[in-house]
Amino acid sequence: MNANLQYRPATATDLGDVVGFPQNIDELFFCYPKAIWPLNVGQLAAAIAERRESTVVETAGKVAGFANFYQWQHGEFCALGNLMVAPWARSQGVAQHMVEVMEQIARERYRAPLMKVSCFNANAGGLLLYTRIGYQTVGIVERRAPDGSRVALVQLEKRL
């Protein structure tokens, strides 16, 4: 893990920063498909309310990343959701660190032997990250993009 990055539970005061992470409608769709562009604090707060372990990663006191679990079954698996990285913090290992933090939380708090992630086919950065750190494709399902076009949601898993 990156020594310059610290993680902690997300707080209400973090939401104003996090809603600025998605830079366009496509990025928002990748990290939160049900959200409506532009992301706002109300939408993010609603997601946090129905999810678990909303977590931020900070560097130099600034929020650089955010993620949570959208599904969890104690002793079985956790499913990573809402993974977002601040534009200024991209290509610095924040996303990988965020995934590693969430894997650790899944193991320690949920005794989960498996982490699941889903990534849209157009999200090359996400697909490359997940496969580089050991996730394997287990399925592909059809979804609809905001414009109604067909997209593939790649389902991946990793043994923890």
Name a few traits of the molecule.
38% strand, 160 residues, seven-stranded mixed β-sheet, 7 strands, single chain, globular, Aminopeptidase
CATH class of the domain at 5-113: Alpha Beta
Spatially, the strands of the biggest sheet line up as 1-2-3-4-5-7-6
Q: Order of SSEs, N→C?
A: EHHHEEEHEHEE
**Known CATH architecture of the domain at 5-113:** 3-Layer(aba) Sandwich
Assign a percent range to the helix content. Answer: 25-40%
- The quaternary organization reads as single chain
Give the termini distance in whole angstroms.
Answer: 15 Å
What is the CATH superfamily label of the domain at 5-113? Answer: Gcn5-related N-acetyltransferase (GNAT)
Uncertain residue ranges = none
Beta content: 35-45%
Report the major sheet: 7 strands, mixed
Structural class: alpha+beta
- Mean pLDDT, to the nearest integer, reads 97
Shape: globular
Structure explained in plain terms:
With 160 residues, the chain is α+β, with helices and mostly antiparallel strands. The protein has a domain at 5-113: 3-Layer(aba) Sandwich (Aminopeptidase). 29% of the residues lie in helices and 38% in strands. The protein has a seven-stranded mixed beta sheet with strand order 1-2-3-4-5-7-6, sandwiched between helices. It starts with a strand and ends with a strand.
